């Protein structure tokens, strides 16, 4: 396990970025810490800044303001380059290469290349080494790109929507491969995804972006324990005043509210413990409240 | 000694935390005699490769069971069952099991559904417990648990 003094997987302070000098801020005032050894879900609606954040962490972009550190080092620098792998959404692979060529290229480009690991990841997907990358299905292309990233034996693996466009079976297989790698050696994983059900049992840390700001950066179990799903009569709503109501909806006389209780909740409510998916959905939906400070 | 004695199924819709599901399924397997003392549990890697859950979930479940004295992890070797939960009477061919099977068959033949059957059993258990607690009031508060206090034995080995 990791010691308390070990640098975090990700650490951002006052991080800001905009794509053009006078454009809108894609990210602003982001401050958060993701501890080592976590499997982190990076969630947010389209345009919330997930890809920007991953590109900054991978060293493909430079902050306009503040800074981000990966494993205690500057992204893209000598100390980080061999220890961090970033898989971008476009999964840059040479379509005319065979799978074997692709892995050979991985070996040339990376000092710490692990060919058996890369080959195993490819084989688990039933992909022939002689297959041409351009002729593979999207799921298999993702797997080859993942093999390239895992063959690097990174300490931090950044994945930008690795599950997009994949059917549920392939998503499950990709996640299983990732989890198995995480079980075998200490690797921190940060993955962005819209597929919330896939995150429920896999991620133990959550970073939630909302319009370019970090709204949550917390342990997943702490999130589950820190929220309550209340159902009751609308007249009971005043009892929620001292708590944080993340999301509420009414239906006739019935009120359903996702709440972060600040102490015991009064009133007559049916109380349920929400799943991670419900909590994330509640935070992602439009609400009237302003951005709250991140917890970490 | 293979780690393929049990296979865990994770129900993502149940709302029950995955580590609890692993503990319960292990206990169930121990009770039914599917798992026996000395058996090796699957490695965390095997479990997550089959279920796509977070490895820490498996570590946590195994740690909980180790603290409960059910299993013991041996560094580099794996996690092994150290205590059986099988009660005489729960095996496949026991008289109780045979009677239960016959009774269930009668209940189903009488038109009861699964939930009705379970409700009947629960009600009978409740009634029994109610009677017992009425009879020996404050008699049996101590549990068998502390016989050989499994709590901190083997707690040092952290790895699963």
TrEMBL record, chain A:
<protein>
    <submittedName>
        <fullName>ATP-binding cassette domain-containing protein</fullName>
    </submittedName>
</protein>
<dbReference type="InterPro" id="IPR003439">
    <property type="entry name" value="ABC_transporter-like_ATP-bd"/>
</dbReference>
<keyword id="KW-0813">Transport</keyword>
<dbReference type="InterPro" id="IPR003593">
    <property type="entry name" value="AAA+_ATPase"/>
</dbReference>
<keyword id="KW-0547">Nucleotide-binding</keyword>
<dbReference type="InterPro" id="IPR051782">
    <property type="entry name" value="ABC_Transporter_VariousFunc"/>
</dbReference>
<dbReference type="InterPro" id="IPR027417">
    <property type="entry name" value="P-loop_NTPase"/>
</dbReference>
<feature type="domain" description="ABC transporter">
    <location>
        <begin position="10"/>
        <end position="236"/>
    </location>
</feature>
<dbReference type="Pfam" id="PF00005">
    <property type="entry name" value="ABC_tran"/>
</dbReference>
<dbReference type="GO" id="GO:0005524">
    <property type="term" value="F:ATP binding"/>
</dbReference>
<keyword id="KW-0067">ATP-binding</keyword>
From TrEMBL, chain B:
<dbReference type="InterPro" id="IPR036390">
    <property type="entry name" value="WH_DNA-bd_sf"/>
</dbReference>
<dbReference type="Pfam" id="PF00392">
    <property type="entry name" value="GntR"/>
</dbReference>
<keyword id="KW-0238">DNA-binding</keyword>
<keyword id="KW-0804">Transcription</keyword>
<keyword id="KW-0805">Transcription regulation</keyword>
<dbReference type="InterPro" id="IPR036388">
    <property type="entry name" value="WH-like_DNA-bd_sf"/>
</dbReference>
<dbReference type="InterPro" id="IPR000524">
    <property type="entry name" value="Tscrpt_reg_HTH_GntR"/>
</dbReference>
<feature type="domain" description="HTH gntR-type">
    <location>
        <begin position="16"/>
        <end position="84"/>
    </location>
</feature>
<feature type="region of interest" description="Disordered">
    <location>
        <begin position="126"/>
        <end position="160"/>
    </location>
</feature>
<protein>
    <submittedName>
        <fullName>GntR family transcriptional regulator</fullName>
    </submittedName>
</protein>
């Amino acid at each position: 396990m990791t010691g308390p003094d070990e640098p975090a997987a990700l650490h951002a302070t006052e991080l800001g970025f905009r794509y053009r000098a006078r454009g809108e801020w894609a990210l602003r005032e982001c401050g958060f810490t993701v501890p080592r050894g976590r499997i982190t879900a990076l969630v947010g609606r389209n345009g919330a800044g997930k890809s920007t954040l991953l590109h900054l962490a991978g060293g493909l972009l430079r902050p306009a303001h503040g800074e981000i550190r990966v494993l205690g080092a500057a992204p893209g620098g000598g100390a980080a380059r061999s220890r961090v792998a970033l898989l971008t959404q476009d999964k840059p692979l040479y379509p005319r290469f065979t799978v074997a060529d692709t892995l050979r290229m991985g070996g040339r480009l990376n000092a710490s290349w692990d060919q058996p690991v890369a080959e195993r990841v490819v084989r688990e997907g039933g992909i022939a080494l002689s297959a041409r990358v351009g002729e593979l299905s999207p799921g298999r292309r993702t797997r080859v790109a993942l093999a390239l990233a895992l063959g690097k034996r990174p300490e931090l693996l950044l994945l930008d929507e690795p599950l997009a466009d994949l059917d549920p079976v392939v998503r499950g297989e990709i996640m299983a491969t990732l989890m198995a790698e995480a079980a075998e050696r200490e690797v921190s994983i940060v993955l962005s995804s819209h597929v919330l059900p896939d995150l429920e049992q896999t991620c133990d840390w959550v970073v939630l972006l909302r319009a370019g700001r970090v709204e949550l950066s917390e342990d997943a179990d702490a999130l589950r324990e820190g929220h309550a799903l209340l159902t009751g009569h609308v007249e009971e709503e005043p009892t929620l005043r001292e708590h944080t109501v993340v999301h509420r909806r009414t239906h006739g006389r019935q009120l359903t509210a996702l709440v972060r209780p600040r102490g015991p909740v009064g009133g007559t409510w049916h109380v349920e413990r929400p799943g991670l998916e419900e909590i994330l959905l509640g935070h992602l939906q439009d609400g009237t409240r302003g951005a709250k400070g991140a917890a970490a | 000694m293979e780690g393929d004695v049990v296979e865990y199924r994770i129900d993502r819709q149940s709302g029950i935390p995955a580590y609890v599901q692993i503990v319960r399924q292990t206990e169930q397997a121990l009770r039914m005699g599917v798992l026996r003392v000395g058996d090796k549990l699957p490695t965390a890697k095997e479990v997550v490769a089959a279920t796509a859950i977070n490895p820490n979930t498996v570590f946590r479940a195994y740690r909980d069971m180790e603290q409960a004295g059910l299993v013991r992890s041996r560094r580099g070797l794996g996690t092994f069952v150290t205590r059986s939960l099988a009660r005489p009477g729960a095996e496949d061919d026991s008289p109780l099991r045979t009677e239960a099977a016959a009774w269930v068959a009668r209940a189903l033949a009488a038109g009861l559904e699964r939930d009705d059957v379970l409700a009947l059993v629960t009600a009978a258990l409740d009634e029994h417990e109610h009677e017992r607690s009425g009879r020996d009031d404050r008699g049996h508060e101590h549990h068998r648990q502390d016989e050989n206090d499994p709590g901190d034995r083997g707690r040092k080995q952290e790895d699963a």
